[in-house]
Predict the 3D structure of the following.
Amino acid sequence: MKEEVEVVSFKMPFWNMVWFIVKWTLASIVALVVLALLLLLVMVLVSMIVGNGADITATVEHYSSHFHSYQFSK
């Protein structure tokens, strides 16, 4: 038994509408944070499965030494 409903109009006070939009926005922010954490978890798991991840220590030390030599050469 399938019935269709068509909403033609509804009345809602302005401040109730504003409060509804604020709650909707806050719920969206929470949902995005949860999705970002899930994506981070997946990326960490993939990194652990694939290998030890990228070893950026040498790169950081390389650019760090260039920064210090430039900074103190003046």
Notes: The radius of gyration is 26 Å.
